[in-house]
Amino acid sequence: MQKIICDTLIDAGHVLPIAPENRAFKNHGLVLQGDRIAAIGPLPTLLENYAPKEHLSFPEGILIPGLINAHGHAAMTLLRGVGEDMLLEPWLRDRIWPMEKDLVSPEFVATGTELAITEMLGRGVTTFVDMYFFPEITADVARRAHMRCLLAFPIFEGVTNWARDVDDCFRLGFELHDTARGNPLIDVAFGPHAPYTVSRATLERVLMYSQELGLGVHIHLHETAAEVAAARAREGRSWIDVLDQIGLLNPQLQAVHMTQVTPAEVERFAETGAHVIHCPGSNMKLADGICPVNTLDAAGVNVAIGTDGGASNNGLDVLHDARLASLLAKTEARRADAGKASASLYKATLGGARAIGREDDLGSLEPGKLADVVVFTPASLAAWPLHDPFAALLHHGSAWNANAVWVGGRRTVADGKPLLIDTAALRGRIETQTRRIAALTARG
Amino acid sequence: MQKIICDTLIDAGHVLPIAPENRAFKNHGLVLQGDRIAAIGPLPTLLENYAPKEHLSFPEGILIPGLINAHGHAAMTLLRGVGEDMLLEPWLRDRIWPMEKDLVSPEFVATGTELAITEMLGRGVTTFVDMYFFPEITADVARRAHMRCLLAFPIFEGVTNWARDVDDCFRLGFELHDTARGNPLIDVAFGPHAPYTVSRATLERVLMYSQELGLGVHIHLHETAAEVAAARAREGRSWIDVLDQIGLLNPQLQAVHMTQVTPAEVERFAETGAHVIHCPGSNMKLADGICPVNTLDAAGVNVAIGTDGGASNNGLDVLHDARLASLLAKTEARRADAGKASASLYKATLGGARAIGREDDLGSLEPGKLADVVVFTPASLAAWPLHDPFAALLHHGSAWNANAVWVGGRRTVADGKPLLIDTAALRGRIETQTRRIAALTARG
Question: Would you report the helix, strand and coil content of chain B in percent, each value rounded to 5?
Fold first, then answer.
């Protein structure tokens, strides 16, 4: 019988496809053709049916879909460690915002984003959602690194280092959308910062454009109790209520943080199909409160995982935050069988894909989906014994390295090293930004 | 002026001595002579005064005292991943305890302990407290790896794979104490498992011997709400009350977990000088509840950090658990300035030394103390920029590797590789144990 010629066959000791069954399979393989997954199955079967141009074998590896970091501010990686252990408001007001005012430029964003991508690739992330200034620069960097991203371009009322005013934000965002149209790696969404930094009129414009263009809306929502209390005092309702009235609770909504939610609000999210982006590392570090994920899960709300910016985590390790999600779920439920490792890994893959409207072609190892794929291999002897691959990645992720990464069928990491990042040049540019930051810190 | 000849001079970009000041110093060095720290200071000053036989420079490194893992069951590393996401009681009763019955032997303990030590060295741990069967085997393995340990030999009422009964536990423990006496790396303590697995009479014996011999008492205490409720039902008081009445609340007590404590109990700990070993990763994973560390800190109770066994974490990364300690403290206090990185690093070093009665010679970089020292260096570009070395280790520890480790002035890790572990042979022995475990799992 004639075998089917294909580009790549990858086999691994353990394969976790996430869907259609959230199970672990041993000694399975994946066939890639072009930018897609062509087949998945037991290795012997695949070898019988396919003639791959390239066959890569990872007998000690765990093969999963590329992880999706559903919320972050990539360039802020350069500010990691600035103003540690400060109360949230002084931290933002006295350290972060003044520094951003002085620092944020195309070069700052290019360097910080490339650094963030380098780190994320090292931890198996193939898609990141970014909400930061100069998203057109972020798009360039992602394109060169062959990294998939959703750019939630910022929408603020006043002047920022990037845009003159809110109209300028929209103008620049639409320009980005036009130029990105041809590139399958770059998606665009609206990124109205938060309901308290963006006017009602602007939110209504966002809804209108979002529906016209079929683009997502990515917003910080109910991050802290103080934020919700201020809304009640000012508006007489919560911000979720405000968004609901405008019509923004719908399947395009990507609501980040959501640490404070009433049962009625959970119900509205479930009814409307709006998504929640859970950022446990950041929420704990900034003492925001904890997103009630068990409740959201029980109500059928889709939850994805985000690391948030490097300055409030401080890693960009989606597995790390997925682990926190599991630990918090167990703690909140007071049951060790809550927050299952497989459920948290789902949130970090297919949950993320659903949140960004890409469940049809991302987030799981299924024929027809895009070939965004990661193989983790042991970083040391500490990886052994391997009794449970879900637990290995979730609860002992540090013993596993992202050895091999493919985005859209193209190899971007081999032997743990990123193939499309000039790390030496990047180091130099990081140094330059570090000196700028140090000069500011010394002055301030 | 004649320079002082010394064995080793280590310098690093950042030095965190923990005491006398919990601060970060730049471009400082450490002088080692024999098994001790001879001096610490700015590198130029040390170079003026000392003539080291060996000078090791880590300009990109962070130099700290060796981390102290104040609670664990090292050999259980072999059971990492067995019975994940199960409720606590069925997990222990139906998976772990039956498997231990079949598996625990000198070879199981030797292999599991050596694996645990290899992992811990890779994360900068130089002292571990262990509570497991065949502690005399653990002592052998630790001795060969030149790893410091406190062996809290188990005390159980009934028969175990190690001892016939409680008298046998004491007999074997005293034997261990005698043979270990000559070795500065091995300390011994009493390890009565928990107040509900050990009789009152046995606890009274432990107190008596502990005071006679000046040895510590290491016990699981108030790990779950169910445990405390059972005590109240059975004894009419809490287990802390029971230990208090016996007289076990004193500076030799190392109380592990302590997730449930009343204000009066916190007060008793503060008054008596008893120590708490905080195991946040394990407590969260097993849904035990969270130890109220902010309250303990405020009351002046000494808190140390433990990873617990590999099967309920699942790593043996003290920095990881120290990070959880910080995040939980911020979350509980609802203040981002709680749970400071420096405070959690203290718990993982000098707090641990105090808990095991070794604050005079361990836990900080001070002249006269034992030379248990670690240098972390960047694992990747993700380590940069480095704005805050405390935060770098606590909140971004995965970007840093334990490159160099000394225990008692002797180098045990170089270039991130353990010098005294035959990793190839160990891999083979892990395989053997893995097959035994797999056979049991298949049967069960």
Answer: 45, 25, 30
Task: Provide the 10 A C-beta neighbour count for residue A213.
Answer: 13
Q: Which residue, among B169, B93, B109, B119, has the nearest Cα to B141 in the 3D structure? A: B109
Whether A195 and A207 map to the same domain: the answer is: yes
Q: Does B214 touch chain A (CB under 8 A)?
A: no
Look at chain A and report how many structural domains it folds into: 2
Greatest Cα-to-Cα distance within chain B, rounded to the nearest angstrom = 74
Range of the domain at B87: 67-355
Residue B345 maps to a domain: yes
Q: Indicate the residue of A335, A385, A399 with minimum beta-carbon distance to B78.
A: A385
Whether B424 has its CB under 8 Å from any CB of chain A: the answer is no
Alpha-carbon gap: A214 to the closest alpha carbon of chain B (Å): 35
Report field, pTM of the whole predicted structure over 0.95: yes
Contact criterion met (CB below 8 Å) for A366 and A40: yes
Condensed to tens digits (0 to 9), the pLDDT of residues B35-89 reads 999 999 999 999 999 999 999 999 999 999 999 999 999 999 999 999 999 998 8
The reply to whether B90 and B187 lie within a common domain is yes
Residue of A396, A427, A437 for testing the chain B interface, max B β-carbons within 10 Å: A396
Per-10-residue mean pLDDT of chain A, 444 residues long, equals 94 97 95 98 98 98 98 97 92 94 97 98 98 98 98 96 98 97 96 96 98 97 95 95 98 98 98 98 97 98 98 97 98 97 98 98 98 97 96 97 98 98 97 94 70
CB pairs A-B closer than 8 Å: 195
CB contacts under 8 A, B 135-164 vs A, are none
For residue B340, which residues of chain A lie inside 8 Å, CB to CB?
84-85
Question: For residues B335 and A85, what is the distance between their CA atoms, to the nearest angstrom?
Answer: 9
Query: Which chain B residues in 68-107 lie under 8 Å from chain A, judged by CB atoms?
Result: 78-82, 84-88, 91
- Is the same domain home to A281 and A270? yes
Report the side by side order of strands in the sheet with B36-42: B36-42, B25-33, B4-15, B50-65, B373-378, B400-407, B410-414, B417-418
B381 CB within 8 Å of a chain A CB: yes
**Angstrom distances, CA of residue A47 to CA of A9, A36, A79, A213:** 9, 18, 48, 44
> In this structure, are residues A326 and A340 in contact, taking their beta carbons and an 8 Å threshold?
yes
Q: Is residue A430 part of a domain?
A: no
Q: Determine, yes or no, domain membership for A434.
A: no
Report B:256-295 residues touching A (Cβ under 8 A).
Answer: 281, 283-287, 289-290
**A56 lies in the same domain as A111:** no
- Asked if A107 and A47 sit in the same domain, the reply is no
Preceding amide of A385 cis, omega within 30: yes
Which CATH number belongs to the domain containing residue A141 in this structure?
A: 3.20.20.140
Q: Which residues pair with A304 in a beta bridge?
A: A277
Residue among A313, A336, A387 whose CB faces B81 most closely: A387
Same domain, yes or no: B263 and B315: yes
Does B297 share its domain with B399? no
Tokens read off for B339: 């749970």
Considering the domain architecture, whether residues B255 and B280 belong to the same structural domain is answered as yes
Which CATH number characterizes residue A25's domain?
2.30.40.10
* C-alpha dihedral sign at A236, A239, A244, A248: positive
Residue A366 in any domain: the answer is: no
Task: Say what the ipTM of the complex is.
Answer: 0.97
Nearest to B285 among A327, A392, A398 (CB): A327
Q: CB–CB of A330 and B284 under 8 A?
A: yes
DSSP state of A66: P
**What amino acid occupies position A207?**
L
Pairing state between β B125-130 and B67-69:
parallel
Considering only the beta carbons, identify the residue of A290, A313, A380 that sits closest to B122: A380
Coil, strand or helix at B264: helix
